[in-house]
Structure formats: C-alpha cells, structure tokens
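Hi support team,

I submitted a single chain yesterday and got back a structure, but I'm not sure I'm reading the token output correctly. Could someone confirm the output below corresponds to the sequence I sent? I've pasted both exactly as they appear in my results page.

Thanks,
R.
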Amino acid sequence: VATWAGVLATALCPNQGVAQDLDLRGQIRPRLEVRDLGGGDDAVALTNMRVRAAVEAALDKGISVFIQLQDVRIWGEETSTLGDFSADQLDLHQGYVRLPLGSGSPVSVTVGRQETNFGGQRLVGAVGWTPQGRSFDGLRVTTIPEWGRLDLIAYKLRESGVADAPETDLFGAYGVVDVGEQNSLDLYVLYDREAGLQSTDRFTYGSRLAGASGSLTYRGEVSLQAGDRRGADVSAYMVGARVGTSFGDGRGAVALWFDLLSGDADDGDGETKVFDTLFGTNHKFYGFADLFLNIPVHTGGLGLRDLALKTGYELTEALRVDADLHQFDAAESSGFASSSLGQELDVTLRFQHSSQVGLSAGHSIVWSDEALRALGRASGTAHFGYVMLDAAF
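Hi R., thanks for writing in. Yes, this is the structure output for that exact sequence:
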C-alpha cells in the first residue's frame, strides 16, 4: 500500500519544486466468509481481500485532486503469482477533481469517478461492505448553505460508444435541511434512464426525516416511483420507519425497524408496482446474510416487508456486540400458502484494536419458509459467517 501511495504521490507532484499538501491513505481488508444455503450441499468458504491506496492533493485556489486505486481478489484465484502477474483485479475506484466556484464559495463541482452516499444509503450508496464497493462516473455540484446541503448529480452508468445502442444515466437532486439541532429533513428526486430497445424513464422522489430527542432516536422515510420501464407504467412505493433508545448509560441501544417495499403479483397488466432500490446499500437494511441484495430481483418482484428488532451493547470501550432479528414477508404472496419468507438472526462482534485496526466477526442464521425457497434464495436453514480484519490509515 505504501508503494502504491508513493507512486500516486509522485504522479501528482512531478515537479518537486511545487509545494503541495498531500494526504496519503490506505486500507487492507481481508475477510473470510462461509455460506451454507441449507440444501444439503457443502458450505462454501472463501477469503476475499480489498487493498486500497489513495492520495489527495490540495492545489492552488482551493482545488483538490483525489486518486484511489483498488485491488480486489479472492485468495488463491491466481493459480500462481509467479505465472500470473497481469493485475486483473486492479482498478481505479475513485479519481476526481474538486473545484470551488470562486474564492470562499460554498459551491463546488466534483468531476470524475466518485463514491456517493445520500441519506442512509437507502437509494444511493457506496456499498462499503462489499470488497469492490461502488463508485459513479460523472459530475456532482455541491452547495453547503447555512440551512443544510444540496447535491446535484449527473452520472453516466453505461456508455456503449455506438449510435442507437443502450446507454444508462442517473440524474438527481438531494437536499438536506437542518431542522433544529438534532433533526434533519432530506428531500430528493432521482431520474434514471436507459436508452435503447428496452427503454426506461423513471423518477424516484421522496423525503426522509431523522433525528433524536434525549435518548430517543427516530427515522421515517417515504419514496415513490413513477414513469415508464420497458413499456410498462411504473407506480411503486417504499415506506420505512425506525424508533430506538439507549440504555446502560448510553452503552446499549435497542431499536424497532419496519420497511415496506411494494411488490407486483401480476407483471402482465402493463403496470409495474414493484419498488426498485436503485443503487442502495441494501446490506445495511435487509439482513447481513445478503439474501436481498438486488431488489426487486431477489424478491421475485413480490416486494418485501421487513420487521426487525435491533440491539447492541458496548461490553468495553473496544468491544461491542450487536444482535438483529428480522421477520421477512413478501408484500405480495402470489399464490404461496403464506407470505412469510422467513426469519433471520444476525449476531456481530466488533473489536477495535486501535484507532486504525479493527476486527469483526458475525454469524447469520436464516430460517427459510416456502416462499423464500421457491424464489431460490435458500434451500433450508441457511447460515452465513465471517471474520474480517480492517487496517486503514
């Protein structure tokens, strides 16, 4: 990582006589994962690893440049490091220039490949849990006035370079309004389009209120989708709510979550009622076993209803344990005897060895019901476990 960072620093500062402020960053994050879908087959175990090296340079007139290289691999996928040295998994994760619009201006433009996290990452997120993560190519205009923050984005998701070939874009506006000292109101509209034979013109708009009052924390959000997707009218919605409190002098916390994503039991009526989570970090919301990473694909278009009880406790300053219990149901049963998909229990242990090194381990158990097995997401009682080391500077 240090070597990569040195190469990046040299690239940004070819003229050693020019004074520049450099910030070097790096990360190594290996994770052992074991997954058993409960069908009687042997569990699958593998170790993935993310290595990132980044450098940020502060230039004249408040301009900054950020470059982040990334290597993501599974241990042993190269049959021999002696014979395979093509760096297949090396990629540019982020690379952008940030330009303020005038001296002291609250408005800046970020141009290039960049991570983007909006709100709780329900619809747009960097998906930091996955080794590769997510970034976008395009530009973002950001202003930070006294009342909050506003981001305008224009991202190119797919470019064929051929006339009349499929292309995909994402445009949007996301505003955060400060409401008092402990509350914020998010208002947003996102527009994703796909040009080609199977065209999409879809709007997602909504609001999110999050805040706290004493030991009580809460969040509520509503999203609506409308437009046209591959010849069908879009009419879908998502509702989410959370309320929680702390205990034990703030060392413990407990919260009740509820999420409802609309589904569609009849995909032949010319109307699409299933909600699409777009580019969200779904690992945060719908269980750590990751059975519902791609919604609506992983729910068979039936939508999702998730009622969860989440609790955690700091055993020491460095050690924390969390436990989450989910009840998953399909929003539309589509002929199943029960709409229940199953229950999931996630237990996570986190140890912060130092400010730069952390160790975590988790185990998830999924008791699948008929509908989940019919969707092919599990074949019985499923298990997922992991151990992860995260060293970053």
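A quick pointer for reading it: Residues 2-392 form a domain with the Porin fold (CATH 2.40.160.100). Let us know if anything else looks off.

Best,
Support desk
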